[in-house]
């Protein structure tokens, strides 16, 4: 009909608005870390960190860590970005420090790996510490419930290959990278200082003992000399008395 009103824009000829563009979908939240990804991250970061003499990783090195984690887990594309890897290491370190001070045996599944990483390889160990995988190793990392995984630089699907080009400007100078090493260095310095103070006191003690022994020996020598001198005087006195008596006897004869 010529006089009929035309349908509103975006609707069909029956007035239905099914043709309107759908609202923008919300950004997909990042998936939590699985135990397999966490173990791969710790092992990869440890190798990279040790190769830098426990120095901080730069942005491109964090990208290499992210690629290595995906490769170790058997993924064709990145599952976690370089920023997420860096943030995860920071959170693992915080969790490790809180777990380490607990008095009872630790049940956190990543404690041995983190402890081995922070303390370094033991010189007396015959083999490296083995990671015992739990039956739920393919499930999500249980420590994620303590963490906020809202990291920047994550794609909608979480597996975009272009995340390789993402870089964190703060990654080049991340102060948290060396926190474990700094803490170990401080602890080693405290132990060294205590050992030096202990050795100094022991040396002082030995010197005092030697001085005391030297003084005692001098006193003993003086005592012996005085006794010998007294004995000589007594002997001389008796000798003079005998000589006088002999003279008198001879004169009397």
From TrEMBL:
Gene3D superfamilies: Homeodomain-like
Compositionally biased region (Polar residues): 159-173
Region (Disordered): 1-33, 140-185
Pfam family, one: Myb_DNA-bind_4
Origin: domain of life: Eukaryota
Residues annotated as domain Myb-like: 32-93
Residue ranges with Pro residues bias: 1-10
InterPro entries to which the protein is assigned, alphabetical: ASIL1/2-like, Myb_DNA-bind_4, SANT/Myb
SMART domains: MADF
Protein name (database record): Myb-like domain-containing protein
